[in-house]
Amino acid sequence: MADSVYIVVHPLAGDGRSVVAHVHAEDRALGVAHSFTGVLELLRAAGLETADGWPPIRWLGGGPEEWSE
Fold first, then answer.
1. Would 52 be classed as within a structural domain?
2. In Å, what is the CA distance from 6 to each residue of 11, 16, 32?
3. How many Cβ atoms from other residues are within 10 Å of residue 9's Cβ?
4. CA-CA distance, 30 to 20, in Å (whole number)?
C-alpha cells in the first residue's frame, strides 16, 4: 500500500506555524507561516498552484478559523 501524502500545519507558536509536507514516508518542512495567506504561499512555493491538486491538510491545534490577520 502506498504511503499517503498530506500537509501538516502545526499549532500556532509565537513565531508562526510550521508547515510540513509528508511525502514518501518522510516529512519535509515547507516553512513557517504567520497567517493563513502565508500557508497558501508556502503551498504555492512547493508547486501546489491550485486547490484541486492539494493533498489533504491536517490542522493541528486549530484550523484556519484560528488565524487573525
1. yes
2. 16, 20, 17
3. 23
4. 5
Confirm whether 68 is domain-assigned: no
Question: Residue 2: what pLDDT?
Answer: 55
46-64: pLDDT as tens digits: 887 777 777 888 888 777 7
Residue at 36 is within a domain: yes
CB count, 10 Å around CB of 14? 4
Copy the grid coordinates of residue 60.
493541528
- Total number of domains constituting the chain: 1
Return the residue matching grid coordinates 500500500: 1
Q: What is the pTM of this model?
A: 0.70
Q: How far apart are CA 36 and CA 31, in angstroms?
A: 13
Enclosing domain of residue 26: 6-63
Task: Kindly state the cell numbers that stand for 5.
Answer: 501524502
